[in-house]
Design goal:
Layout (H helix, E strand, L loop, with lengths): L2 H7 L12 E2 L10 H13 L7 H19 L7 E3 L3 H11 L7 E5 L8 H4 L7 E5 L8 H7 L4 E7 L11 H11 L2 E5 L16 E5 L11 E5 L1 H4 L45 H17 L1 H21 L16 E4 L4 H10 L2 E2 L1 E3 L2 E5 L6 H10 L1
Parallel strand pairs: 1-10, 3-4, 3-5, 5-6, 6-7
Antiparallel strand pairs: 2-8, 7-8, 9-12, 11-12
Helix pairs in contact: 2-9, 3-9, 10-12
């Protein structure tokens, strides 16, 4: 084991889930990181007694959370707006981008439905949704190019497939979209917290909190590119979408109604955000950043390589692409009865998922080869 991997494994004992379970289900739900747990406990204690002095701490805490999210995905903090989940962020993008009757949007078969229904909802406005066929290697830039025409306005895809773990080439797709003047919207919930993010060519990136980011469900963020942000008028606004209300430091002129959108991505935040979930997400983002984004990704890929090698040696068919650029923290493979296998393994305190005919393993940095060996023994 490399020194880097040993360094990360020091953190393993801080994850309560490892004491009773072999947890391999981060593509479904992630356990709380130690800092997320600490900040939730602190907030819960503070909420037992409310006091006006806590407002500044709330304001500063949200600012720190946005900054941590920005740091994790290499974005300017002005491009980060808080959303309650991935679905809400994608729905915001679908409703806010400038689309007209007769335009079309390119999506893909096999996507998690959070990145489908907000776009299908636009068909009621006369906008076409084109679903690309998903191949074993995911979605290619050539498929997208062939599906485009002069009325294509949006490409909306998942960075990493929820069922097969295939990672798309966001750089190549972003370059194509920029060339064709098409918006590129990315559902990144299966990658943020595990894989390093490259924002080049991406107009909107959305990620929820409850998976690889190691924080509770009910939080998330949307990244809006600086160029898009200049002209984006959200389809829904609230009192905290406006300046100066978004600063939360002056409540003396609340009924002086001036429709002036916040200059930054806070314009997509309509009202009060969840202290517990967003502060916890911010704490986990700082934690993952400080551990080292490259170290975390390399550790996860190494664990996945170990699993794939041993699955192949036992004759299992791997659904996940194994070429390095397409790898993620998900390994999907075929078994005769995926749902039944999940139930049987759960009785042995091994937790994973069945998705789309596959057994799906989601490995994070604090997992170890003993976790994988135990799974292999029990299959």
């Amino acid at each position: 084991m490399s020194p880097v991997h040993r360094e990360l494994l020091v953190e393993r004992d801080r994850f309560e889930v490892t004491k009773n379970y072999t947890y391999l289900n981060h593509a479904s739900r992630g356990p709380l990181s130690p800092p997320a747990r600490e900040i939730i406990t602190t907030i819960a204690d503070e909420m037992l007694t409310v006091h006006p002095s806590q407002i500044k701490g709330m304001r500063d805490g949200f600012a720190e959370a946005r900054q941590a999210m920005a740091d994790l995905v290499n974005a300017p903090v002005t491009s980060i707006g808080l959303v309650p989940n991935t679905s809400s962020g994608i729905a915001m993008a679908a409703g806010s981008l400038p689309l007209k009757r007769g335009d079309n949007i390119i999506c893909a078969q096999g996507e998690f439905p959070a990145n489908i229904y907000p776009w299908l909802n636009l068909t009621f406005r006369g906008i076409e949704v084109r679903l690309l066929d998903r191949n074993p290697a995911g979605i290619s830039v050539d498929q997208i190019r062939e599906a485009m025409d002069e009325r294509t306005k949006v490409v909306a895809l998942s960075w990493i497939g929820f069922a097969d773990g295939a990672r798309i080439d966001t750089a190549a797709i972003g370059e194509l979209c920029a060339e064709k003047k098409v918006f590129f919207v990315l559902d990144a919930v299966q990658g943020v917290g595990a894989m390093r993010v490259d924002l080049a060519g991406i107009d909107v990136l959305v990620s929820g909190s409850g998976k690889w980011s190691l924080s509770p469900q009910g939080g998330g963020f949307a990244y809006l590119s600086p160029m898009l942000l200049e002209n984006l008028h959200p389809d829904r606004v609230g009192w905290l979408s406006m300046t100066p209300n978004c600063e939360m430091d002056d409540f003396s002129n609340l009924v002086d109604y001036k429709f002036t959108l916040a200059e930054d991505a806070r314009r997509v935040e309509t009202g009060n955000n969840s202290l517990l979930t967003q502060f916890a997400l911010g704490a986990s983002c700082r934690y993952l950043r400080d551990l080292g984004k490259r170290k975390v990704e390399e550790r996860i890929i190494a664990l996945c390589d170990y699993l794939v090698t041993h699955l192949r040696s036992k004759g299992y068919s791997i659904t996940t692409p194994v070429d390095s650029p397409q790898r993620s923290g998900i390994v999907a493979f075929r078994v005769d009865d995926p749902a039944g296998t999940v139930k049987r393994l759960l009785k042995r305190n091994i937790i994973l998922s069945a998705r789309e005919g596959n057994l799906r393993v989601g490995l994070h940095f604090y997992n170890n080869t003993e976790d994988i060996d135990r799974l292999l023994e029990e299959l």
